[in-house]
Specification:
The complex is a heterodimer. By secondary structure, chain A is mainly alpha-helical. Chain A has 16 helices and four strands. Chain A has a single domain, classed as Up-down Bundle (Cytochrome Bc1 Complex, Chain C). In chain A, 63% of the residues lie in helices and 4% in strands. In chain A, the strands form two sheets. Chain A has a two-stranded antiparallel ribbon. Chain A has a two-stranded antiparallel ribbon with strand order 2-3. Chain B has one domain. Helix content of chain B is 89%, strand content 0%. Classes of the chains: A mainly alpha, B mainly alpha. Chains A and B meet through helix 6 and helix 12 of A and helix 2 and helix 3 of B. Chain A: This is Cytochrome b subunit of the bc complex. Chain A: Keywords: Membrane, Transmembrane, Transmembrane helix.
Chain lengths: 410, 109
Amino acid sequence: MRWLVRLWELILERFHLKEFLEHPVPRYSNINPLYWFGDVAAVSFFLLALTGFFLALLYTPGMAVKEVPTSALMPWDVLHPKKTETVQATQSYLSVYTITYLTPFGFILRQFHLWAAYMMIMAAFVHFFAKFVLGSYKRKGGGALWFLGVLLGFLTVNQAVLGYILPLHLDGILALLIGLNLFRYFDYIGIPVGGLIIALLGSNYPTDAVIKMIYVAHILVVPAIILILLGLKIQGILYGGVSPPPVRDQELAKKMVDDKEPFYPHRFALMTGQVFLQISLLLLLVAFFPQPLLEPWAPGEIVPAGVRPPWPVMWYYTYVKMIDPFISVGIPIIMVLFALVVPLLDRRGGSSISERWLWILIAIIYMAIIGYGSVLGFIIEIPKQITPFTRIAVPPDSAVPYIGTPSPIG
Amino acid sequence: MDPIALAWITAGIAVPAAVLVYVFIGTDMKWAVATGLTSVLLLLTLFAYTANIITALYTAVSWPPDPQIVQQGVMYQRVAAGQLAAASFIVGILAVGYYMEISKKRGHE
């Protein structure tokens, strides 16, 4: 036992971990729930990386079409029953099907990954709202952390959509359609992003190469960027401290900041508890609310009405269908750009809630826009064609449908 | 064993254990740890049993799969997820309880 203690001490000494473990953390940030959601999002990211590693070993992307007996589809996956004996499915879909239904523990693995992704997005939204309310960007170095946070939020939603495309089910193809149409919007306003994306993908419809690129982006490129930004953010918090307490009384605020606990064992125990409780919640969601794999899609097949995109982008989809696309398609871009400049606009006064009611109102409007669109998208069927550009006169070179019957160009 | 019976046995162990651990955290941490770890051990034994059934079940899977076997496999995996969730929950509340304990001690100094 003594040699183990000696080894532990040696590790702490050689890697200078003692400084890290003993760094003081204000007690208020340990007990106030508004300070927890960044940790939840970060832990979700690492859980996603862990499950994603195993999923990446088992998943093979591909557009090759195979015939699947209709009886092989699980009843909970079928929303639009087909009377034929077989259905067409891509290699990607069959790969996810094999992981989910034909691999021991594959069902838990995929469901856990899916729910962890949803939890990461939800935690990122709440974290954004909490930091907006707390005015975290007002402290020294807070603006840079806020900037990183907005970029991380944007990447998180992108990562979710990329992952949602990979099984190539009807909903995934709809997500791809929405994503590519977003690039078309840039083309329309004169920024040739759509053209650039087509040049990068080498095609304007999903091919083996396109799916492979989406796969690589999902498992390598975006997670690597997230990891770097997350590392910078953790470093900034470690040395710059957490957000100041949201109280007006300066004396009380100082007292709260000075009331500190060492990271180890205090915050460490709390974080261990958080990790296990988070895993527990995710596994409970897997056990009680398993998500369907959904129906397969085959090239050339039109996405039927009633298919919905994943909930993180549902609000956007709803507005695109409700409001004139010229305004609605740009909503998330405007929201992200505005969020990026918030620290430059909100500079005066303290960080207490009573001093910042206008900015808290703006934070509530942000959440209301996302919440209203999401709820509305799920409870009503908005009768409009799926493409958001039905009312926009698209330039002729952008008018080629991105998804449809394959007809190679170039 | 039937997956629903397994789920009930899991709940029968996990719910009283979680309540007991929660009660003991407020009174005596030693008892909380003892109860917590014993119940985690029991839940992991149940998980090992369920995992055995799952691996045995999946040796019978062929292509095209029999939907009934797949549905049964899904049921057992959901139960296995529940068992791990319960064990994880107990470890989680023990860790949070430990934080509350050391934070409280420091406050009394």
